[in-house]
Design goal:
This protein has about 325 residues and is α/β, with parallel strands linked by helices. The chain has two domains: about 5-125 and about 305-320, ATPase, nucleotide binding domain (Nucleotidyltransferase, domain 5, 2-Layer Sandwich), CATH 3.30.420; about 130-300, ATPase, nucleotide binding domain (Nucleotidyltransferase, domain 5, 2-Layer Sandwich). Helix content is about 40%, strand content about 20%. The chain contains ten helices and twelve strands. It has helices at about 40-60, 95-105, 115-125, 185-190, 190-205, 210, 220-230, 235-260, 275-285, 305-320, and strands spanning about 5-10, 15-20, 25-35, 65-70, 75, 80-85, 110-115, 135-140, 145-150, 150-155, 260-265, 300. Strands 3-2-1-4-7 form a five-stranded mixed β-sheet. The chain has a five-stranded mixed β-sheet with strand order 10-9-8-11-12, sandwiched between helices. Helix 7 packs across helix 8. The mean pLDDT is about 95. The structure holds zinc ion. Zinc ion binds near residues 166 and 185.
């Protein structure tokens, strides 16, 4: 009988679910909107509904479910099984997993932070397959991350480790959402890149960037900048070089602390490809404390995109639940 591990990724907008086969591949994935009134009960009802629909499609029964893993955008206390802090969900401190267990008694389950799940998914089924240690850095609205050491997720004593957006790269720097100043996230997230682009544009009225966004600052996105760099716009090149400098400072810090086999960069910015990677690698090679070592951290882009969170949530349950 074919067995499936089910990965559930609960986001602020969508709940994505995947049936993962025994080769750690997604056999089927689907998603539903996160209920507007996102009470724990509404969320559980949506999850159960979608799992049943997908099981029907794959023609499998509950008996074929091996493990169920859930990823949530918050801090999960593994001892109490509760979500202690969730920014984008309107509930907290509720026993989400306990509620799901009532629908699937006897099936082992685990719940993890979504960024950690994505890192683990990328590690096991994506770009990190061949290595033992990997630090994932996701450049999006903020900066998320996950730390995998000796093939295990590192969560810290309170399950809140891996907040790689919130170490400081500039002590007197710009304020961060977390209350500190000069965090990596405030300089190297996609949001930060867009702000840096807009600031440069205000001083450079001739830049191609203006044409690229229909002369509307509100329309500036990461892609606007990368498109203009490809057309050799000087302002765009300047912004990108500055951004790569900020990014490299954070990435080199991470490498100096962990010296991992691999640093994996995910999020929308990774679509820029070599425009970012070449400059970043060059700086890292110059400044990595272990630059003379025979072995250095590989810097690569994530492969699995949104699937990483689903696969990782499921496989964390499979690999670390009894
Ligand atoms: Zn911060």
């Amino acid at each position: 009988m074919k067995k499936y591990t089910i990965g559930v990724d609960i986001g602020g907008t969508n709940i994505a679910i995947g049936f993962i086969n025994e080769d750690n591949q997604l056999a089927l994935k689907d998603s539903v909107e996160t209920p507007k009134r996102g009470t724990a009960k509404n969320i559980i009802d949506s999850i159960v509904f979608l799992i049943q629909k997908m099981a029907k499609e794959l023609n499998v029964l509950k008996e074929n479910f091996d493990y169920i893993g859930i990823g949530v955008p918050g801090t999960v206390n593994k001892e109490s099984g509760k979500i202690e802090f969730a920014n984008n969900l309107s509930f907290h401190d509720e026993d989400l997993m306990g509620m799901l267990k009532k629908h699937y008694p006897g099936i082992p389950m685990a719940m993890n932070n979504d960024a950690n799940a994505a890192a683990y998914g990328e590690f096991v089924a994506g770009v990190g397959k061949e290595v033992d240690s990997m630090i994932m850095v996701t450049l999006g609205t903020g900066i998320g991350g996950g730390i995998i050491i000796d093939r295990k997720l590192y969560e810290g004593s309170n399950f809140a480790a891996g907040e790689l957006g919130h170490f400081v790269i500039n002590c007197e720097g710009i304020p961060c959402n977390c209350g500190r100043r000069g965090c990596f996230e405030a300089y190297a997230s996609a949001t930060a890149l867009i702000e840096q682009t807009k600031t440069a544009m205000k001083n450079e009225k001739e830049s191609l960037l203006w044409e690229m966004c229909d002369y509307n600052l509100e329309k500036v996105e990461g892609k606007t900048l990368f498109d203009c760099v490809r057309l050799f716009d000087k302002t765009a090149e300047k912004v990108l070089n500055q951004y790569i400098y900020y990014l490299s400072v954070g990435i080199i810090d991470i490498i100096n602390i962990f010296q991992p086999d691999m640093v994996c960069i995910g999020g929308g910015i990774s679509k820029a490809g070599d425009l970012i990677l070449d400059g970043l690698k060059e700086r890292v090679q110059k400044e990595d404390y272990a630059r003379t070592s025979k072995k250095q951290a590989k810097i690569v882009f994530a492969q699995l995109e949104n699937d990483a969170g689903i696969i990782g949530a499921g496989l964390l349950a499979k690999h670390f639940t009894n």
